[in-house]
Inverse folding.
């Protein structure tokens, strides 16, 4: 009599476990996807502001044409990027050039007093912080996903349902990690 | 392998339910006694029940409106305060939660709080003094702390507790006024006398229950939740020093009888505004809603 319940019981527990871990993997993957698209949305927002910024700054900073060109070029590169690597490369270029631009703007009191410039500067540095937090959030979701995918016994489920580990977002060059070097004679921006 | 945040969230939901239950009992009790005076205890209980349900619904669904009104906070949009708005948005991204509504309190005393029933219906309010005194990383630390309260559902329990307790205090004030007014207006009269009796009874009950309500508020705002929110905030920003330095700056800036000082709301703020400049040391520890700031700063710096 009792034995009649043991086998269905075990089958039920296993099934419940499979459903549970599958759903967990799906929600973690979706979280990582959302976190990734958040970064992309923010980058899009930043590059959308670039033409406006260039127009505002152009009249004031005749000597700093290089910086503006670098930013515009980075935007074009980003818009045309087809791989993730190109995408990240253009993004880093723009980040660096923007930092240089804002540092250089300290030498132009007229520009610094420009209402539009002040607004753009706040908006862009706000976006910069948001991008940093969005990347951190992405790494955290990826870590949660990878942990579940790699740990026993969920790794078996992950293999069966074809969930793969993701790569973390890392700052590629050491340059991007450290504070920007401001050097007016620097030929790097050409 | 229990997720500490998840445990915190369910504990907060459980406690809110418990609070609901306790208040329901208290209202039923009061309703019963009023009912006896009206001639039928059942009528009293039903009346109290209806009032309680309305109160609870208000505290649950628009608790954040009540709290921001009480604090004298004004909602701001992105174009009014881009710096504050952007910082809140950045931390909502870090927490992976929706963007809360942003409020400003126009006072020089630096402080901040969060309220709401869940992350989808939350508000963060900061004072003008906070914005003026902190740099970007310190402000991020403070906003991260408030975001942590929202993330952990601390706001649900605190908002419901404050609105319910606040209503009791409000009702007792009204009752006292009505009694004074009624007493002076018509000297005698059978009906007036009976009404006065009920009022005296309610007042008595409220007077007896007031310390209990105060205790309930304390229960809602435990010191542990502040440590946890600090830790979660450090996790959000990845930079505990920001919040530590902000706490250092704002604790000693609290002044006695400031516009944000409000008994009902004191537990909600990041730093208790009622203790004045003392809030930094251990003098107020015994009855404090918050752990001493020095201890919080020490823990943050040890992270």
């Amino acid at each position: 009599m009792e034995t009649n319940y043991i086998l269905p019981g075990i089958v039920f527990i296993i099934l419940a476990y499979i459903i549970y871990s599958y759903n967990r993997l799906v929600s973690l993957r979706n979280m990582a996807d959302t976190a990734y698209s958040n970064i992309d949305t923010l980058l899009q927002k930043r590059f959308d502001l670039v033409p406006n910024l260039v127009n505002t700054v152009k009249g004031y900073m005749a000597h700093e044409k290089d910086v503006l060109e670098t930013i515009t070029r980075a935007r074009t590169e980003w818009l045309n990027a087809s791989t993730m690597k190109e995408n990240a490369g253009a993004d880093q270029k723009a980040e660096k050039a923007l930092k240089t631009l804002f540092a250089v703007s300290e030498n132009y009191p007229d520009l610094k007093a420009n209402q539009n410039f002040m607004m753009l500067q706040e908006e862009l540095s706000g976006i910069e912080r948001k991008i940093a937090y969005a990347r951190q959030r992405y790494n955290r979701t990826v870590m949660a996903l990878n942990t579940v995918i790699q740990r026993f016994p969920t790794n078996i489920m992950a293999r069966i349902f074809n969930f793969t580990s993701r790569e973390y977002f890392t700052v590629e060059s050491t340059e991007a990690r450290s504070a920007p070097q401001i050097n007016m004679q620097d030929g790097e921006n050409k | 392998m229990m997720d500490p945040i998840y445990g915190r969230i369910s504990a907060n939901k459980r406690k809110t339910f418990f609070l609901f239950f306790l208040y329901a009992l208290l209202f039923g009790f009061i309703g019963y006694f009023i009912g006896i005076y009206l001639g039928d205890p059942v009528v009293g209980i039903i009346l109290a029940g209806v009032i309680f349900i309305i109160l609870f619904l208000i505290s649950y669904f628009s608790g954040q409106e009540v709290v921001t009104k009480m604090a004298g906070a004004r909602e701001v949009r992105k174009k009014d305060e881009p710096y504050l708005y952007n910082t809140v948005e950045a931390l909502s991204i870090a927490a992976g939660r929706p963007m809360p509504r942003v409020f400003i309190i126009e006072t020089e005393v630096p402080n901040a709080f969060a309220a709401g029933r869940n992350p989808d219906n939350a508000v963060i309010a900061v004072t003008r003094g906070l914005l003026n005194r902190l740099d970007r990383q310190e402000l991020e630390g403070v906003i991260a702390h408030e975001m942590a309260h929202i993330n952990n559902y601390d706001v649900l329990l605190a908002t419901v507790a404050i609105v319910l307790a606040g209503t009791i205090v409000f009702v007792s004030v009204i009752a006292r006024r009505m009694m004074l007014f009624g007493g002076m207006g018509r000297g005698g009269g059978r009906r007036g006398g009976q009404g006065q009796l009920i009022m005296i009874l309610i007042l008595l009950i409220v007077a007896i229950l007031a310390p209990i309500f105060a205790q309930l508020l304390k229960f809602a705002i435990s010191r542990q939740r502040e440590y946890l929110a600090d830790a979660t905030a450090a996790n959000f920003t990845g930079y505990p020093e920001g919040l530590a330095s902000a706490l250092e700056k704002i604790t000693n800036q609290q002044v006695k009888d400031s516009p944000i000082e409000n008994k009902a709301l004191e537990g909600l703020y990041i730093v208790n505004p009622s203790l004045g400049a003392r809030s930094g040391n251990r003098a107020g520890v015994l009855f404090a809603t918050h752990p001493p700031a020095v201890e919080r700063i020490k823990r943050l710096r040890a992270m």
About this structure: Chain B touches chain A at residues 82-83, 86-87, 89-91, 93-96, 136, 140, 236, 238 (CB under 8 Å).
